[in-house]
Design brief:
Radius of gyration: 23 Å
CATH topology of the largest domain: Rossmann fold
Helix content: 40-55%
Oligomer: single chain
Structural class: mainly alpha
Bound molecules: tryptophan
CATH class of the largest domain: Alpha Beta
Distance between the termini: 41 Å
Strand content: 5-15%
C-alpha cells in the first residue's frame, strides 16, 4: 500500500517541446514526431506549445496569426495530444518567457549566436530581414525550455545545436549566479522509434517546402491523396530478379510499411523481386491504405474545427498551468539576480 502511494507521488520528468506553426500536419510530422509525443504523454510530465513568438522571426506580418495557431492546435489534438494528460499551450500566453529571454540575452554573445547553423540558413533565405529576433532565436528557445525547468526536449536533428545553446545558457546562468537553479536539459531523440518518412518526389524526406505534391497531409481529401500518390516518382521497373530497389521505389515501400498490413507489403515485395510488379497497382493500394489511415484524423480535425468552446477551453487550461509554473520560476529568477519583488 505504502509503495503504491509512493509510486504515484513520484515526480515525473518534465518533457517539453515547441511546435512551429508553419502549416498543416503531414505524415512525415506524424511518424517523425507527433506519434512519439502522444506516447510520452503517458510516461512524462509533458509540455507542448505552439511557438507563435518564434514565428515572427520569419513571418513578421502574419495574415491570420490566431487562425493559424488554432489550426495547428486542432491538428495536434486530432493526432492524439490530450489536454488531460499533457500541458498544451501557446507560447504567447506565457509572457514571462519574454522576461527570461531578456535576462538570457544579457549573457548571450554575438559570436556564438552568429555561428548557429539555423541562423545562417535563415539569414541566407531572408537577407533583407536579418533581425535581432532571428539572431537570438536560440535564447528565446532556451527561455521556453528552462522556464518550465524541462529535463528532456524531444527535437529533430536540425534542432540539436539550438538545444546545445540552451544547455550553455542554463549552465551559464547557474554559474554566474552561483546556483543550481536551472536543470540542464537533454536532447531527446527517439532512436529506433523514429521513422523517417520520405516524400513522393523520389528523394529526400517528406516536407511542405519541397513543393506541391511531395507531402500527404492528415486533412487531405481522398481525391487529392490519390492524385498525389499516382503522380509519385517511379522508374521503368525491375529488370533482374531480387535487384535492390532504387530510392523512389524504396520510398513507396517505406510508406506502404507504415500504413498497410504486413501481408500487403510482402505481396508487393514478392512482385518486385520476381519482376512482375505493376507500379500502378502498388500505388492504388498505397493510396487506399493512406486514405484509410488519414480519414479518422481528417474527421477529428473537422469536428474540432466546429468546437470553438472546446478549443478555447483547451487553450485556457494549458495557459493557466504553464503560466503558473513560469511565474513561479520568474519570481525566483528575479530574486536570484537581485531585482525587487514585484509579485
Ligand atoms: N525551434 C523549434 C523548431 O524549429 C521550435 C521550438 C521553439 C522549440 N521553442 C522550442 C522546440 C523549445 C523545443 C523546445 O522546430
Amino acid at each position: 500500500m505504502f509503495f503504491i502511494i509512493f509510486a504515484s507521488m513520484e515526480k515525473r520528468e518534465v518533457v517539453l517541446s515547441g511546435i512551429r506553426p508553419t502549416g498543416h500536419l503531414h505524415l512525415g510530422n506524424y511518424f517523425g514526431a507527433v506519434k512519439n509525443f502522444v506516447k510520452m504523454q503517458d510516461t512524462n510530465d509533458c509540455y507542448f506549445f505552439i511557438a507563435d513568438y518564434h514565428s515572427l522571426t520569419t513571418h513578421p506580418h502574419p495574415d491570420n496569426l490566431q487562425g493559424n495557431v488554432r489550426q495547428v492546435l486542432i491538428e495536434y489534438l486530432a493526432a492524439g495530444l490530450d489536454p488531460e494528460k499533457a500541458t498544451l499551450y501557446l507560447q504567447s500566453d506565457i509572457p514571462e518567457t519574454a522576461e527570461l529571454y531578456l535576462f538570457l540575452n544579457m549573457n548571450a554573445y554575438l559570436g556564438e549566436l552568429e555561428r548557429v547553423t539555423t541562423f545562417k540558413e535563415k539569414a541566407r533565405k531572408q537577407p533583407n530581414n536579418v533581425n535581432a529576433g532571428l539572431l537570438t532565436y536560440p535564447t528565446l528557445m532556451a527561455a521556453d525550455i528552462i522556464i518550465q525547468k524541462a529535463a528532456k526536449v524531444p527535437v529533430g536533428k536540425d534542432q540539436e545545436q539550438n538545444l546545445e545553446m540552451t544547455r550553455t545558457y542554463a549552465r551559464r546562468f547557474n554559474k554566474m549566479y552561483n546556483t543550481d537553479f536551472f536543470p540542464v536539459p537533454k536532447a531527446f531523440n527517439f532512436g529506433e522509434a523514429l521513422v523517417k518518412i520520405p516524400g513522393l518526389d523520389g528523394s529526400g524526406k517528406m516536407g511542405k517546402s519541397e513543393g506541391e505534391g511531395n507531402a500527404i497531409f492528415l486533412n487531405d481529401d481522398p481525391k487529392v491523396i490519390r492524385k498525389k500518390i499516382m503522380r509519385a516518382v517511379t522508374d521503368s521497373g525491375p529488370t533482374e530478379k531480387n535487384q535492390p530497389k532504387p530510392e523512389p521505389i524504396e520510398n513507396l515501400f517505406t510508406l506502404l510499411k507504415v500504413v498497410s498490413k504486413p501481408e500487403v507489403v510482402a505481396y508487393f515485395d514478392e512482385k518486385y523481386n520476381d519482376c512482375s510488379i505493376r507500379y500502378g497497382d502498388l500505388k492504388k493500394q498505397l493510396a487506399e491504405d493512406v486514405i484509410a489511415f488519414t480519414t479518422p484524423f481528417a474527421e477529428k480535425i473537422k469536428a474540432l474545427d466546429a468546437s470553438d468552446d472546446y478549443i478555447l477551453k483547451v487553450m485556457n487550461m494549458g495557459a493557466e498551468k504553464a503560466r503558473a509554473n513560469a511565474q513561479k520560476t520568474m519570481r525566483e529568477v528575479r530574486e536570484i539576480i537581485g531585482f525587487r519583488k514585484i509579485y
